[in-house]
Amino acid sequence: MEIEIPTIPAGILTLLSLLAPYVIALINRPSWSAATKRVVAVVASVVLAAAVIVFYYVYTGDVVPSWPVLVLLAIVVVQASHALLTRGSADAVERASSRARE
């Protein structure tokens, strides 16, 4: 079985997934449990992947042949980005956005 991932959707998805922890931080609240925050992050990753796949289809008319791989790519990159690059600044955005809502 050969898996084909179109380069452009994978690249766009990767770039957006690197920035997604900041958007997720706007949704999350510091008072929520870690499990709830994790569910929000996974759902946001799936929505991001779906948006990229739909945009690619609308723009080119081609169906992405291996869309589950793109969904997994989004989840992995968002989680890795948060864990390795953006944890401190995304947590600061989360705290600041929750203070703004109160």
Observed structural traits:
102 residues; mainly alpha; 3 helices; 81% helix; elongated
In brief, what are we looking at here?
With 102 residues, this protein is mainly α. It has helices spanning 7-27, 34-60, 67-101.
Descriptive notes:
The chain has helices at 7-27, 34-60, 67-101. The model has no long low-confidence stretch (mean pLDDT 91). The protein is mostly helical and 102 residues long. The protein starts with 6 loop residues before the first helix and ends with a helix. It contains 3 helices and no strands. It is elongated. The relative contact order is 0.21.
- As residue ranges, the low-confidence spans are none
Q: Please outline the major beta sheet.
A: none
- Helix run count: 3
Structural class, by secondary structure, is mainly alpha
Shape: elongated
Query: Mean pLDDT, nearest integer?
Result: 91
Strand content: under 5%
Strand and helix order: HHH
Number of strands: 0
Taking all Cα atoms into account, the compactness measure Rg is: 15 Å
What level of helicity do the residues show? Answer: over 70%
Determine the N-to-C terminus distance.
52 Å
